[in-house]
Every structure is written in C-alpha cells, then in structure tokens.
Design goal:
With 655 residues, the chain is α+β, with helices and mostly antiparallel strands. The chain is 31% helix and 28% strand. The strands form seven sheets. Strands 6, 7, 20, 21, 22, 23 and 24 form a seven-stranded mixed sheet that branches. A six-stranded antiparallel barrel has the order 9-16-12-11-17-18.
Length: 655
C-alpha cells in the first residue's frame, strides 16, 4: 500500500530492470523520483521503460526520472513517462581526481541556494561503486552549531526534486500549496524557475539553455491526465456539496415573503377558475327525469302477466311481445372453506369365505360379482360381491340319506368400512341373489378387514354456510358473463335470470355443487358452484319496449284495464322456466290522479338529486320510491352530473 509521501531512489549503473522495479515498490510512496547516472543501460530501451511504467500504473505510483543520459530521456519520452533532463555535471560517471571533502553544514538563505548547495555536495565518480550497492544516497551529516540546525545535502536534493515532481503534475497552484505546507511562505514561482535553470547548468549572465518552467509548458502523460481529472472531479464534487449545503441552509432559514403568498393565492384562484372552465360546463342543464306517480289507495297487483319475446322485429303497436332472444351462459363461482371436525370415512373393504350348501340334484354355477346380502350385528343390510365364478356341486344320495353338495365362495364387501365386518356364524343368514331357496350359506370364519379412517372431508354442514357468498359472487358474475355473448346492437334486458340466484340457499339441487381439497392445508377445501344461466338479449331500449307491451298484456289479462284511468306504478319481469318464449311480470297499478305530482314534490325530488352522477341519482330516487313519494323510475339522463341548480332539473311524471 502506497503513502502520500515522495521518495528518492538512486539507480546504480549495473542495476537490472527487475532491481529497479523492486526498489520502486519498496519505496511505498505515491510519488517516486528516480535519479539515474549517465550510461545506465537498464532504461535505455523502450521495452524496459514500458515494464517500469506499467508496474507503476498498477501500483498507483507516479514516477519522475532525473538523468543526463540522452538514450534514457528518449526511451522515457517514447513511453510517455515524466523525465527531467539534467546536465552531465550533476550526474557524472567519470572518476574524480581526489576524494570528495566532507560537506559542511549550511543554512541557505533561500530554496534556490539550498538546492544549489546540495548539488555541489553530490557524490563524485569515486563514490560510484558505493552507489551501485546502495538503494539511496547516504552521507554523514556534520554536527551543526547549536544555534543553527543543519540539513543534509540529500534532504536538500530530495526537497528540490520533490518540488519539480509536484510542479510537473499539479502546476503552479499545486506547487505553491506544497511549499506553503512545508512552511515556506515566502516561496514564489519565479525563484523556482531559477532553480530549474540552475539544474540545467544555466547562469544569470548566460542565455537560457531551455525555457523557464511554466504551468502551461508542463506536458502530462495520459496517466497523469487521468489522475489530474480524478482530482478535479473530486474538487468539483466537494464544491458542489458545499454549494448544496449553503443552498439548503438558505432554504431552511425563516423567511417572510408576503408578496410570495399573494402570488400563491392568485395562482390558486386561477387554477380553480381553469378547473371550472374545463369541468364545470360538463354539468348538464335543462335535463329531464321521468318517474311514475306513487301508488294510491285502490291500487291492484297483477301476477304472471304474460309477455312473449321473439327474434323478429315488432311493428304492431298493440302487440304484447318484445323483440329479443334467449341466451345461455354456464357460470361457475368458487368459495373457500375449512373443515373443522374430522369424520369417519370408509377405508378398507372386508373379505371372507362362505360355505354354500346345495340340496338339489343339479349343480349351480355362481358368476363373479353376484350380490350376497346379510344383516350386520347393527341390523343394517350390507352387500357383498363374489370375487370369482364358482360352481356349487349337486347333492348326492346314499343309504343314510341325501348328502348336500358343498362349495366355497370368496366374497368382498361392496364398500369399505367396519360396518361390513361379520362374526363367525353357523346360521344360514346369507342370501345369494338369484339362488334363494336353492342354496344356503354360512360363514364358519369371521368376515373381517373392513376399516374406517378419520378424514377432514367436507360434508353438507361444512359447505352450506358458504352458499350466501356464492350468491353474492353470482350477482356480479352473471351480468358480466352475459355481456360476452351479446351480438352487435344488443343489450341485456333487466329481467330476473334463471335459475334464480336467491333460491340457491334454499334449494341447492338447482346447481351443480362440488368440493375439492386445497393442497397443503389442514382441512381446507374449495366449494365450486356451477349453473347454466339464462337471460334475455334485446335490441334497442328494453324500458321503451316494456312501456309499449305491458299495457297491452294487462288488457289481455284484464279487459277492464285502461290507461286512461289507471297508471302502472311498479313492474318486475322474469323469465318463464317452462321452456316457452315467455316473460312473466308482476305489475302494480293504481288509479290516475288528476294533478300527477305537486310542484313542491317535484322541487323536493330535484333538490335531492342536484349535482349527482346518474348512478348516485338512481340510488337517491330508489330511496324516494321506497318511502312512497314516487313510483317506478322510468329514466335518468346519461350525463356526467346533473345540474347543481334544482330549477334546471325537470321532473316529469309518466302516467
């Protein structure tokens, strides 16, 4: 794992590329500066430079090469590595004339002097052999005077190279922050360019051998650009979080902006006005609701008023028929229940052997599955069946008398259960059907093996309480299923379907009722109720056809009926179950009133249904009919909502 510090390593001439890579790894730093003497062949080829660069990328290490070897510079630039070319005097491979003198502690007045002083104290050619076995420059530091703390030449050299590395990757801003973090507040970028010139061997009087280092002159590799982009993205993210935090603080601060409240109120008023323009005009105006008058004293009820229905159109106004056709739809509903109490259920069937005696002179063959009857100890008649064809031999005679023919008959109970177990008996209590009087039988051994089991199987007492739920499901399922078989232009007539769903709870035999267990439950079962329902499909309005045909049917039933003096108050129509194309109606009539409904009653009706949807208005009118204020509801207009002004609702009474 690398740390955030910068390390300097010095490469010996004979160090192979593997040794250089290992030294870079051992540095365990985020930035590594490599100091290479001229003539080091390890990094003079592009192949070895590529290996070093790939290793550094994998380890997350930023590399900077410092060398005077032109071959190393060329190979590093080809591999897009950061390289700083220095003068040969800085890294010399020639032997010196004399050993170097010990360095004296100095206190540089500025970073430039500090760096130049460190260059003067670098090892000469006589120390090359020592450098080849040492991973970094090491030189004793003389003891300084107590008043002036000393720095080593290597420290000054490492600081200078560290500054160069930071400048090449982070620019002037990053380098300035780096120097300030080290406590060098008086640092400036021009002084650093002087250091660069000194490193290149330039003097103040001579013309610059290479341009001064400027942020815009630093050329980054693709890896450096990726790292700089990542740093820039992190900086932008931190700035964004700071901006959001400031904005949130500003939003949560208490404000008193009275003009804003005024704008909100005006906007709400505008929205209400827009909604009124869009939806307010959907309330119908000038609509008509048609009802029949309430029944009066002297009324009469007619039962089973006959109305025919036919597929052909009806043109005769005096006809008591309705145009329609019978439709049939099988409908099933299911309800779930649970068996609470387990009951005994037959399990295994009893078996045994009968001894059959024949006192006749002829043999009797008994086929398989012949029924054999007997009374069990409880007095119940039980049935057994023969398992195989058996012939009972004929009787024989001798001096002692008649010897009966005897045969064995294998029998099995017709059902499982313990009630079929019989004790051994010598009494001829068995009867073989078809051989009464000719053969008699006994069971010298017990008939046994019949067993029962306690099972949670649904019985009538379990599923009968579920029938009301099935009725409720049928009420919604029947109209929906009937709609699926209607032809184009047909509607479903408002008649009672067959069979009557209300009769399900009283007479379940009208329906097919089955139960089936629900897997992985303790006694759970599903009740499935199925019936073939019949309805009437008509063309056009069934109410209009009924208003025409019903008075004619009443005149057929009662010739004295007249619409001039009598009004139809209520009617209920059902299909006839005789199979004929017939409808039966129960009709309530009452004498006509001269005034119909008073205006005050009409206003009361209109006020009770103002602003309602047609469905809501029908519910309210039905409540008024139940109270006796009006009779049957003939029609309610198909609008979105009735007017909110009762004066715009016209209550019309149909006599």
């Amino acid at each position: 794992m690398t740390t955030g510090k910068t390390e300097l390593i010095t490469i010996a001439l004979a160090d192979p590329i593997d040794s250089i890579i290992q030294q870079v790894r051992n540095a365990k730093a985020e930035h590594v500066d490599i100091f290479m003497p001229e003539g080091s062949i390890s990094l003079q080829s592009r192949k070895t430079c590529d290996r070093l660069r790939e290793t550094a990328n994998r380890e997350g290490i930023e590399l900077t090469l410092y060398t005077s070897d032109p071959k190393v510079v060329k190979a590093a630039l080809t591999c897009q590595m950061m390289v700083v070319e220095i003068e040969p005097a800085v890294v010399s491979t020639k032997a010196p004339a004399a050993p170097p003198a010990p360095a004296k502690p100095v206190v540089p007045a500025s970073p430039e002097e500090d760096f130049l002083a460190s260059l003067e104290g670098l090892p000469t050619a006589s120390t090359t052999d020592r450098l080849q076995t040492s991973p970094s420059i090491s030189k004793p530091i003389p003891t300084a005077a107590p008043s002036q703390p000393a720095r080593s030449e290597i420290d000054d050299w490492a600081d200078a190279l560290d500054s160069l590395s930071v400048a090449s990757t982070a620019g002037e801003t990053g380098l300035r922050q780096h120097e300030q973090a080290r406590g060098n507040d008086s640092w400036d970028f021009d002084s650093f360019n002087d250091l660069s010139d000194a490193l290149s061997g330039d003097t103040a009087s001579a013309a610059p051998a290479r341009p001064r280092i400027r942020p815009e002159d630093i050329e980054l590799t693709s890896d450096d650009m990726h790292r700089q982009d990542a740093k820039a993205r992190r900086a932008r993210a931190e700035q964004k979080r700071a901006d959001e935090k400031a904005e949130l603080k500003q939003q949560t601060a208490p404000k008193r902006n009275y003009p804003l409240w005024g704008m909100v109120i005006l906007g709400a008023i505008a929205i209400i006005a827009l909604l009124w323009l869009l939806f307010g005009n959907t309330l119908a105006s000038g609509v008509t609701v048609v009802v029949r008058p309430a029944p009066t004293s002297g009324g009469q009820t007619y039962e089973d008023v006959r109305l025919n229905y036919q597929a052909d159109s009806i043109s005769e106004p005096s006809s008591a028929a309705i145009q329609g056709r019978l439709i049939n739809v099988p409908i099933s509903v299911s309800v779930r229940g649970t068996v609470i109490t387990a009951t005994e259920q037959p399990d295994q069937a009893a078996t045994g052997i009968l001894e059959v005696y024949n006192r006749n002179t002829q043999a009797y063959p008994i086929p398989a599955n012949t029924r054999v009857r007997v009374l069990n100890p409880a007095g119940e008649e039980i049935i057994f069946l023969t398992q195989a064809e058996t012939t009972i031999p004929a009787a024989t005679g001798n001096f002692a008398g008649i010897v009966s023919g005897v045969g064995s008959l294998q029998i099995v109970a017709s059902a499982g259960g313990t009630r079929y177990n019989m004790p051994a008996s010598q009494d001829p209590v068995w009867t073989i059907e078809g051989y009464e009087g000719a053969l008699f039988s006994i069971n010298p051994e017990p008939i046994q093996g019949g067993t029962t089991a306690l099972l949670k199987l649904p019985v009538e007492s379990d599923w009968m309480p579920l029938l009301p739920q099935a009725v409720a499901q049928f009420r919604s399922a029947i109209p929906a299923q009937m709609q699926t078989v209607l032809q184009e232009g047909e509607v479903l007539a408002d008649v009672e379907f067959l069979p009557n769903v209300d009769a399900l709870t009283q007479d379940p035999s009208l329906y097919d009722i089955q139960t089936r267990p629900v897997p992985e439950t303790d006694g759970g079962f599903e009740l499935v109720v199925t019936a073939n329902f019949q309805g009437l499909a008509v063309r056009g309005s069934f109410a209009e056809q009924l208003n025409r045909a019903l008075p004619n049917a009443l005149r057929i039933k009662d010739p004295s009926f007249s619409t001039d003096t009598t009004s139809i108050v209520r009617s209920q129509v059902r299909l006839d179950n005789s199979g004929a194309s017939l409808l039966l109606a129960t009709v309530e009539v009452a004498p006509k009133t001269a005034v119909g409904l008073p205006d005050s009653t009409k206003l009361k009706i209109a006020d009770s249904i103002k602003g309602l949807t047609p469905a809501e208005a029908l519910v309210q009118l039905e409540a008024l009919r139940e109270s006796g204020l009006i009779g049957d509801i003939v029609s309610v207009p198909e609008v979105e909502r009735l007017p909110i002004d009762p004066a715009e609702i016209n209550i019309q009474v149909q006599e």
